[in-house]
Design brief:
Elements: E1 5-10, H1 17-27, E2 36-42, H2 47-53, E3 59-63, H3 80-85, E4 88-93, H4 96-101, H5 106-118, E5 122-127, H6 131-136, H7 139-150, H8 156-159, E6 163-166, H9 180-197, H10 200-205, E7 207-210, H11 219-223, E8 230-233, H12 241-246
Parallel strand pairs: 1-2, 1-8, 2-3, 3-4, 4-5, 5-6, 6-7, 7-8
Helix pairs in contact: 1-2, 7-9
The chain binds 1,3-dihydroxyacetonephosphate.
The site of 1,3-dihydroxyacetonephosphate (13P) has 14 residues, from strand 8.
Amino acid sequence: MARRRIIAGNWKMNKTPSEAVALCAELKDLVKNDAVDVVYCVPAIDIVPVAEAVKGTNVHVGAENFYIEDKGAFTGEISAPMLKEAGVEFVIIGHSERRDIFGENDILINAKVKKAFASGLTPILCCGESLALRKAGTYKEWIKRQIEWDLTDVTADQVKTLVIAYEPIWAIGTGETATADQAEEVCAMIRETIAEMYDAATAEAVRIQYGGSMNAGNAAELLSKPNIDGGLIGGASLKPDFGQIVNA
Ligand code: 13P
């Protein structure tokens, strides 16, 4: 069975609530495509107005982060039930910015993946290597280990609905994209890892995105690769270019 393409924007820490609503209006007609899952992962404060703005369209709402407890004394955090009630379906987990700037480790990331599934949210689990690991040639081992850690005690049925984003850190926000062959090499390796951990049917079902300076000019080539099922897009998701990526 062919996997359905999934193009997700990661707005990061951009757009005030009113700017977010304006961007939804700007992109509305450009992102129409019934053959693709389109997701806007937005800052927490934008979730409610964005959910309202995209109602009745083909756009799904995602969060950029959450915490593993349902409620309580966790100042500054936001819970899965809060996201669910606001209409969120997807949540980014383990982005390299969360790992590197906010110190999230694979134990927490694994707990977040399990909590997301238990709460009815679909994780977009990010993995990827630094430039140093790419240069050292050990990037595949590193990413394999991230996947194994982050999916500890996650079931095959859950992984069948999971989205994994391969985002080489050296390609994020740098304008330097992995070549389509470099991206395909790692995405294929991730799928093999899922086959080893689970089974062929699970590996066939899991959707794998590429992320890192994906734009209107390079999306079609990246998305033509057999193991690249979509994209996780930062900078270009804030512009009309996002519509071209959805329709690439
Ligand atoms: P850029 O598309 O801006 O490189 O960001 C990629 C990214 O980090 C998406 O999560």
